[in-house]
Specification:
By secondary structure, the chain is an alpha+beta fold. The chain has helices spanning about 10-30, 30-50, 60-95, 125-135, 145-150, 165-185, 190-200, 205-210; strands at about 100-105, 110-115, 115-120, 120-125, 155, 235-245, 250-260.
Length: about 260
C-alpha cells in the first residue's frame, strides 16, 4: 500500500483559504454567531492595546507611521483593484446579454485590441437606457460615466454600413421623433420604454402592446399642444440611391442616410 504524500505549503495554504471562506459564509447566515465573533475580536483588540502591542497613530514614531501609511496605501490599492475587476466583470456580462447587444454574424466582424481578438457585438439601445437597466439588476450604484468607461471594446455602436437593417432604419426613427417631441416639451417621455410604461401595464406583454389588455387598452398618451403652430425640425433615417464612379463606370448604391425633416 502506497504511503500518502505529504501536502506542500501551497496546498495547505489553499486548504486553509477554502476553510476560512466556508466559515465566513456560515457566519453570515447566522447573525448570532457573527455578533459573538465580533465581540471576541473586539476584546482581543482591547487586550492587545492594554499590553501595548497595538499603537495609535499619535503614539507611533515617524518611522512606524511611514511604514503603516505605506501598508495602508497598498491595502487600499488592492481593495480598489478588486472592486474594479468585479465591476468590469458585471458590466461585461450585462452588455454581452442578447437582450442588450447582438453578435455580428460575419467572418470579418471582429475587433482587435492589445492582441485580443473578439467578435463584434452591436448595442440594441443607447448607453443611458442601458445604464438605468443595469442599476436595476445590481445592488450597488455607479455613475453613467463609469458605466461607459468600463464598456468592453468589442461591444460597440452600429456604423452606417451596419444600419442597413429594420432595427436601425425603421424603429430608430420612432425614438428620434419621441426625443424631438420631448425636447419641445410636447410629451414628458424621452424614450420608447418610458412612453410605453405610461400607456401599458407591462411593456414586454404582447397583449398590452397590441392594445388587447382590458386594464390598459383605454389609456392615452398625455401631450401638451400649447404651441400647436410651432414648426419642428427632426431627423430620420431614410434610404437614398447614391451614384459613384469606379474604374470609369458610374454605379448606384442604396444607402441609409440621416436627414432633417420639417
Amino acid at each position: 500500500m502506497s504511503r500518502s504524500r505529504k501536502s506542500t505549503a501551497a496546498e495547505a495554504k489553499l486548504k486553509k483559504k477554502e476553510y476560512d471562506r466556508k466559515r465566513r459564509e456560515k457566519l453570515k447566515n447566522c447573525p448570532e454567531s457573527l455578533e459573538k465573533l465580533r465581540e471576541k475580536e473586539r476584546l482581543k483588540y482591547l487586550n492587545k492595546k492594554e499590553k501595548g502591542q497595538v499603537k495609535s497613530v499619535s503614539a507611533m514614531s515617524s518611522r512606524e507611521r511611514r511604514q503603516k501609511q505605506k501598508l495602508w496605501r497598498l491595502n487600499s490599492s488592492k481593495y480598489r483593484e478588486k472592486n474594479q475587476n468585479v465591476l468590469k466583470h458585471d458590466i461585461n456580462d450585462f452588455l454581452e446579454k442578447d437582450e442588450n447587444s447582438r453578435m455580428c454574424p460575419g467572418k470579418r466582424d471582429f475587433v482587435r485590441s492589445e492582441k485580443l481578438l473578439k467578435q463584434k457585438r452591436l448595442l440594441t439601445d443607447n448607453m443611458r437606457n442601458l445604464h438605468k437597466k443595469f442599476l436595476n439588476s445590481v445592488t450597488y450604484k455607479i455613475s453613467l460615466s463609469t458605466f461607459c468607461k468600463y464598456r468592453p471594446f468589442w461591444v460597440t455602436w452600429a456604423n452606417l454600413k451596419e444600419r442597413d437593417t429594420c432595427k436601425f432604419v425603421v424603429h430608430v426613427n420612432i425614438e428620434l421623433i419621441i426625443s424631438k417631441l420631448h425636447e419641445n416639451k410636447v410629451i414628458l417621455h424621452n424614450n420608447i420604454p418610458s412612453l410605453l410604461s405610461d400607456i401599458t401595464c407591462d411593456i414586454y406583454c404582447t397583449k398590452c402592446l397590441f392594445r388587447e389588455c382590458i386594464n390598459c387598452r383605454d389609456k392615452a398618451l398625455e401631450y401638451n399642444l400649447s404651441q400647436a403652430t410651432k414648426t419642428i425640425t427632426y431627423r430620420q433615417w431614410m434610404y437614398e440611391n447614391l451614384t459613384y464612379e469606379k474604374n470609369g463606370e458610374t454605379k448606384t448604391v442604396r444607402k441609409p442616410l440621416k436627414k432633417e425633416i420639417t
